[in-house]
Design brief:
The structure is a single chain. The chain is of the alpha+beta class. It has 3 domains: about 110 residues, Butyryl-Coa Dehydrogenase, subunit A, domain 1 (Orthogonal Bundle), CATH 1.10.540; about 100 residues, Beta Barrel (Butyryl-CoA Dehydrogenase, subunit A, domain 2), CATH 2.40.110.10; about 150 residues, Butyryl-CoA Dehydrogenase, subunit A, domain 3, CATH 1.20.140. The strands form 2 sheets. Strands 1, 2, 3, 4, 5, 6, 7 and 8 form an 8-stranded mixed β-sheet that branches. A two-stranded antiparallel ribbon has the order 9-10. Strand 2 and strand 3 form a beta hairpin. The longest helix has about 35 residues. It is an enzyme of class 1 (oxidoreductase). This is Acyl-CoA dehydrogenase.
Length: about 375
């Protein structure tokens, strides 16, 4: 068992970090930090990420993807600011689901532009009245001649306000008016316009979180996905990867907060010496780094378990839940090290704290994740009867 990164993994990590410093941070810094990025700004960033194969990290190289192990992907993903990496998760998830479920003709139509970072995609599954229960959706698709007609609403969808296409999970009413089969429909914005707006939230304010309404939205028949795996299986399997990735977003934010707190502790003096020489400050710094390291290792372990083909639902749920909780406390402790400066916008720790509060909700709340983990431990179902 070796916990050290290989030389290749270290090189990938450092290359992505340099790219972030050179090509992503300047875009974020030049923009209003309280407003969502524009579509052209996101496309500029996506094209840079595409150069590293990060638009489609889960696809094999023969299909145009990065062909990465999920552990290698996570190591690189951790370097990307969460306001951007949340959009990357949405794009990557959309591409992965299209590749897994579409036929060859649909793949040829939808995937090249997404993989190249020239188009923006997302997936709409959550609804105003349906969160953690994907079987409770009410959005439906019916048939009108050679067209599909989509009606319903989706919420908490990253990239929806600027997307070129969205995969919409819905009830199939094309043959049976009372049908309960779940299908997916690809809605291309240029061909099938719909209403969408951004949601103003506490954190990740440069991100692109939004909602959409499909009101008799007419979609070509060839855009229905006849999934080989059926139902929500592909969606659920993608969540297993997403959860430790979101945990690594928390690690990214806690690491930034720790770096700021450590620098402050070394330079800020009180009563004749740096505050870093005080016992309680050293304890806080020790607690912060311990939270970061344990969170990172749990997330890496979950991704390595997926790579090895092991049961990963519980491990992934545990990784995200623990990392988010531990790193939230770590950011809070870092703010305390800075004292009054920790409350200032200038120091940015208050921004990291607001950002990290966004992470518990996507791809499973802490409460749902504890039940997923518990189900894997006991073999007993606590969510459904």
């Amino acid at each position: 068992m070796d916990f050290r990164l290989t030389s290749e993994q270290s090189m990938m990590r450092d290359s992505v970090r340099r790219m972030v410093d050179a090509d992503i941070e300047p875009v974020l810094q030049a923009s209003d930090r309280t407003q969502a990025l524009g579509k052209e700004q996101l496309l500029h960033i996506f094209r840079k990420l595409a150069d590293f194969g990060l638009m489609a990290p889960r696809l094999p190289e023969a299909a145009g993807g990065g062909g990465f192990s999920m552990l290698d992907y996570g190591i690189m993903f951790e370097q990307i600011p969460p306001s951007v990496s949340m959009s990357l998760v949405s794009q990557d998830g959309c591409i992965t689901r299209l590749f897994a479920e579409c036929d060859e003709a649909q793949r040829a139509r939808f995937l090249p532009g997404l993989i190249a970072g020239e188009l923006i995609g997302c997936t709409g599954s959550t609804e105003p009245g349906t969160g953690s229960d994907p079987r409770g959706i009410t959005t439906k698709v019916t048939r009108d001649g050679d067209m599909l007609v989509l009606n319903g609403a989706k919420m908490w969808v990253t990239n929806i306000s600027v997307c070129d296409l969205v995969i919409v999970t819905c009830l199939d009413r094309t043959e049976d008016p009372a049908g309960q089969n779940i299908v997916k429909v690809v809605v291309e914005r240029s061909r099938s316009p719909f209403e969408a707006r951004e949601i103003d939230a506490i954190g990740l304010q440069q991100g692109l979180l939004g909602e959409a309404v499909f009101d008799n939205c007419r979609v070509p028949m060839e855009n229905m996905i006849r999934s080989r795996s059926g139902g929500t299986q592909v969606l659920k399997s993608s969540w297993a990867v997403n959860r430790p990735l979101l945990g690594l977003q928390a690690v990214h934010l806690a690491q930034r907060a720790f770096d700021a707190a450590l620098d402050y502790a070394r330079t800020r003096t009180q009563f004749g010496k740096p505050i870093g020489a005080r016992q309680l400050v050293q304890k806080s710094l020790s607690d912060i780094e311990t939270a970061i390291r344990t969170s990172r290792l749990l997330c890496y372990d979950a991704l390595a378990t997926i790579d090895a083909g092991g049961p990963a639902d519980g491990t992934s749920a545990m990784a995200k839940r623990y990392a988010q909780m531990a790193c939230t406390e770590a950011v809070w402790q870092a703010m305390n090290v800075l004292g009054a400066m920790g409350l200032s916008r200038e120091a940015r720790l208050e921004e990291y704290y607001r950002d990290i509060r966004m992470i518990p909700i996507p791809d499973g709340t802490n409460e749902i994740l504890s039940l997923i983990h518990g189900r894997e431990l006991t073999g007993l179902e606590a969510i459904r009867a």
